[in-house]
Amino acid sequence: MVELSLINQQLFKIIEVKLPRRILLYGPPGTGKTLIARAMANETGAFFFLIHGSEKMSKLPGESELNLRKAFEKAKKNAPAIIFIDELDVIAPKREKSHDEIEHRFVLQLLTLMEDIQQCSHVIVMAATNRPNSINPALRRFALEINIGIPDVVARLEILCIHTKNMKLGDDVDLVQIANETYGYVGADLASLCSKAALQ
Known about the structure:
Helix 8 (153-164) crosses helix 10 (187-199). By secondary structure, the protein is α/β, with parallel strands linked by helices. The termini are far apart. The protein is built from 10 helices and 5 strands. Strands 2-3-4-1-5 form a 5-stranded parallel sheet, sandwiched between helices. The longest helix has 17 residues, at 101-117. It folds into 2 domains: 9-147, Rossmann fold, CATH 3.40.50; 153-199, Helicase, Ruva Protein, domain 3 (Orthogonal Bundle), CATH 1.10.8.60. Keywords: ATP-binding, Nucleotide-binding. Residues 19-152 form the AAA+ ATPase domain. One of its GO terms (molecular function) is ATP hydrolysis activity. This is AAA+ ATPase domain-containing protein.
């Protein structure tokens, strides 16, 4: 439905349905949070702007906020667009965990921009974190929070099929068995497993 809102704005105006413009993806590392956001942008043809939390922080006063404003302005100019903020907990930790004035100003700027983006129906803000409980409470204003958990056996089999579709598998390779034996593996683990197997 979120994808459809980027493709067909007029439809949702007619039925008077307000869709979430701020979405938080949370879950263990390697479960594909960034991949999901990229896939959504690819499916809708939306401009994709990735903000890496650790890369956007600058020690120079005001530079981090300026970079953030430029990112949001660029997304608006290229709408429909998805702004994806990775490692949100790194740039916006809980206040008791942050004693950095630069981080505080950055969080305030991000809050302002996220409020403003609510008026822009062609832009969606998505964020990802491995530690949702470590995010500054002021930023827990996402209309939709989605838990991207560890894949079950069916999902693991699908992931294995995707990563091996262009590989020539031996007759003794049983993807169903591998899926059953890889409990606890996330998408990144399975991708690595397939890559290593291909090099054998």
